[in-house]
């Protein structure tokens, strides 16, 4: 069900305050906290004494204390203090995870192989001052693959997001899908159209536009979307965005269980780069409203699937990108499956 030996986003860097952070990643319960030197610790979220979640406890310097009996553990999972003269009896948290902090996010390595920094995705938009950012984090009660399907088929914008980014041309424009060595790609180009409300406002210029959407899926569960509009015939499709606006949407989906996931979303934009606090708050509110519309649909989809376990998804041409992504995930799962016994 889950692609192991990969990095998954566990949290944004600003989620760490005075309390531990609890996550379930690929079915594994994890507690995270930040040490005094800034390093983020991730370990199994369970005290080895009486099996109470450590995320209920307290951070004390570089250590974490269990709320139940006060057992104190360091960042390597070793018990430093326990009640009674028998001390810790060698108690140790069962698993400690490798973490990396990059692009304003905390990544956790899930798997049995040694953590491989080369497997972190390249997200240059998040490391550049040329792009402003809007970011939000959501928890969804659905299979993480439904989120990937949704992002690899933006035709749904017509009816799920009609007030902002939806328009009828999405239903009519042809799509082109392909699979490369490390990615599934879906492209849609819509020349000489009226921009939908959101893009018209962001462009801030009258006239018809060329609109593009290029969705790129990479393993294990990332979707990168190059989207925007430019005045007709000014080179937007070829990469000249001088007369347009671009939003590069970085979608990082972390599976929690078979029926739940976390969605870390960042829109890097080349417009409104000097937005004041009020304007930035409006960008965040718009993002939350858009994603909530998707969440309503995806969680309803999950409820239907749960109620009708024998029902099968049907694929149309518009689903070609999602189909390629599913094939990549299935092959990665098969490659990582244990050999049959005997």
Task: Tell me about this structure.
Keywords: 2Fe-2S, Iron, Iron-sulfur, Metal-binding, Methyltransferase, Monooxygenase, Oxidoreductase, Transferase. Its EC number is 1.14.13.82. InterPro entries: Cholesterol_7-desaturase, Rieske_2Fe-2S, Rieske_2Fe-2S_sf, VanA_C_cat. It is a single chain. The chain is an alpha+beta fold. The chain contains six helices and 18 strands. A hairpin with a 2-residue loop joins strand 17 (244-257) and strand 18 (260-269). A seven-stranded antiparallel sheet has the order 12-18-17-16-15-14-13. A four-stranded antiparallel sheet has the order 2-3-4-9, with no helix packed on it. Strands 5-6-7-8 form a four-stranded antiparallel sheet, with no helix packed on it. It is globular and about 80 Å long. It has two domains: 6-118, Rieske Iron-sulfur Protein; 127-336, Naphthalene 1,2-dioxygenase Alpha Subunit, Chain A, domain 1 (Alpha-Beta Complex), CATH 3.90.380. The protein has helices at 144-151, 157-160, 169-172, 197-203, 277-307, 320-336, and strands at 6-12, 21-25, 28-34, 40-44, 58-60, 63-65, 72-73, 79-81, 96-97, 99-102, 105-110, 132-140, 175-179, 184-193, 209-218, 222-231, 244-257, 260-269.
Overall form: globular
The average pLDDT is 95
How many structural domains are formed by the residues?
2
Distance between the termini: 23 Å
Examine the secondary-structure arrangement and name the CATH architecture of the largest domain.
Answer: Alpha-Beta Complex
Task: Provide the structure class.
Answer: alpha+beta
β-strand percent reads: 25-35%
N-to-C order of helices and strands: EEEEEEEEEEEEHHHEEHEEEEHH
Approximate helicity band: 10-25%
What's the total number of strands? 18
Arrangement of strands in the largest sheet: 12-18-17-16-15-14-13
CATH class of the largest domain: Alpha Beta
């Amino acid at each position: 069900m889950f692609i192991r030996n990969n990095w998954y986003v566990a949290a944004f860097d600003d989620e760490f305050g005075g309390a531990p952070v609890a996550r379930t990643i690929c079915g594994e319960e994890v507690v995270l906290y930040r040490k005094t030197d800034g390093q983020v610790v991730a370990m199994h979220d369970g005290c080895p004494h009486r099996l109470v979640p450590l995320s209920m406890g307290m951070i004390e310097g570089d250590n974490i204390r269990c709320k139940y009996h006060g057992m104190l553990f360091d960042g390597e999972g070793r018990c430093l203090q326990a009640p009674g003269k028998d001390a810790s009896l060698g108690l140790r948290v069962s698993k400690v995870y490798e973490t990396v902090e990059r692009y304003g996010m905390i990544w956790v390595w899930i798997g049995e192989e040694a953590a491989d920094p080369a497997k972190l995705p390249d997200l240059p938009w998040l490391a550049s001052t040329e792009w402003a950012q809007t970011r939000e984090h959501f928890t969804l009660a659905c299979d993480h693959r439904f989120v990937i399907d949704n992002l690899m088929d933006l035709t749904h914008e017509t009816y799920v997001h009609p007030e902002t980014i939806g328009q009828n041309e999405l239903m009519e424009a042809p799509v082109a899908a392909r699979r490369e060595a490390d990615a599934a790609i879906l492209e849609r180009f819509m020349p000489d159209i009226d921009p939908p409300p959101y893009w018209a406002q962001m462009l801030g210029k009258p006239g018809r536009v060329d609109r593009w959407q290029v969705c790129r899926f990479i393993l294990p569960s990332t979707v990168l979307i190059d989207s925007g509009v430019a005045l007709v015939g000014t080179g937007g499709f070829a990469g000249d965005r001088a007369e347009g606006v671009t939003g590069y949407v970085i979608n990082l989906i972390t599976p929690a269980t078979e029926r739940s996931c976390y969605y870390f979303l960042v829109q890097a934009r080349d417009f409104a780069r000097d937005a004041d606090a009020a304007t930035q708050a409006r960008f965040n509110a718009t993002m939350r409203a858009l994603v909530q519309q998707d969440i309503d649909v995806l969680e309803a989809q999950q409820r239907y699937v749960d109620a009708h376990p024998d029902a099968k998804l049907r694929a149309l041409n518009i689903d070609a990108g999602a189909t390629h992504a599913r094939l990549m995930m299935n092959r990665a799962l098969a490659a990582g499956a244990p050999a049959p016994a005997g």
